[in-house]
Amino acid sequence: MHFEVTELGAVERALQAEVRQFLTEELPRGSFVPGLGMNAAKDPAFSAKLGRRGWLGMTLPEEYGGHRRSMVERLVVTEELLRWGAPVGHHWVADRQSGPIIARYGTEEQKRRFLPPICRGILSFSIGMSEPDSGSDLASLATRAVRDGNGWLLNGRKVWTTGAAVNDWMIVLCRTTPVEEGGDKRSGLSQLMVELSADGVVATPIPFIDGTADFCDVMLEDVYVPDEQVLGTIGAGWTQNTSELAFERGGPDRWLSTYLVVEEYLRGLERGPVPHEVADLLGAAAANYWVLHHLTLSIARAVDEGRSPSIEASLVKEMGTRFEQDVLSGIQALIDLEPGLPARSMFERLLVTATLTAPSFTIRGGTNEILRSVASKGLAPSGGSR
Ligand SMILES: Cc1cc2nc3c(=O)[nH]c(=O)nc-3n(C[C@H](O)[C@H](O)[C@H](O)COP(=O)(O)OP(=O)(O)OC[C@H]3O[C@@H](n4cnc5c(N)ncnc54)[C@H](O)[C@@H]3O)c2cc1C
Predict the structure, then answer these.
(1) Pairing status of strand 230-231 against strand 169-175
(2) Which fold has domain 10-123?
(3) How far is the CA of 349 from the centre of ligand 1 (A)?
């Protein structure tokens, strides 16, 4: 486990200023309803606009529509979008992890087919990992694919699949060799790219406590997946999937979900001296944001330098999601307000949404118990990524 101290350079700061300027002009405060982190609204037109600016698929190769920019530059852009509450929902998963994993493991044909529309913000993806009886213990999953002509016949059920009822594609982790034959439950798994409109795929939205119905229960019944849609190597799904989780865990989306609640709370404070407990909360929050920003920056820099900081990413997700819940509880303890709907102010609206969704922050993308276990292995003298 190692975090190198690093700062943004001049080019990166210039990019940050450019994104801030773009957001001020494109989405002036008060002209839209800000979202909370990656849970923000889906707006395909906004995603396409980001694509035209070159701010999607930033790290992907130019020959596939990408921009060959660094992970740090991508971090600069995503941090600003999340802090603004911009509608990033449509492209989030495709840009964060599906594109990079296709670039890493896909065939030439797959890269030409999927990466350009991901970079343009017009193709959306879901993550097909969790199942009703396999979340943390993912390798025990039951969805299986059997050989059928020039492809695979897929049967099973995925659950908590964000956006599956509206997105275009899903990368499904499934078993292609029975455990009895493969020996170990982590072998014999594969990743298949499944079109969500294909015959046999039925995605049913699951109502969430905040009134949205974004994540889904997905039934897969005799879904035919041609060989052209196998991602990477049959049987190597576990390793491929683990590298996908590294993209999923180390970014600012894991500590900025409640940022706008804090900002709006601060905006609403009366001018003049603030009570000590308010100053304490805001001071601690500022320090935490600074630390988490630098940890995330260090991870992005390590990736740019060719390292693979997946253990560090687990630690940041654990710390970040715990913080985004704690800062919310801190504000709730300071205010004399029973939040309700319809909300009377922007602060109240954000507070209600954050209160209803915060319990999920430490579950989605891997629970904190699991992340602590991964991080602790990295702290052992012989462990770690360097
Ligand atoms: C908002 C949201 C969006 C999501 N989106 C997606 C998505 O798009 N795609 C997708 O595939 N999944 C998605 N998920 C699912 C998510 O990844 C799982 O919920 C998560 O991995 C936990 O799995 P589980 O729900 O089966 O809980 P379980 O694995 O059953 O865990 C239950 C409890 O037991 C604890 N526990 C389990 N095993 C251990 C252990 N070995 N040691 C210590 N404690 C343990 C857990 O920490 C947890 O507290 C989403 C979840 C949420 C909440």
Answers:
(1) unpaired
(2) Butyryl-Coa Dehydrogenase, subunit A; domain 1 (1.10.540)
(3) 27
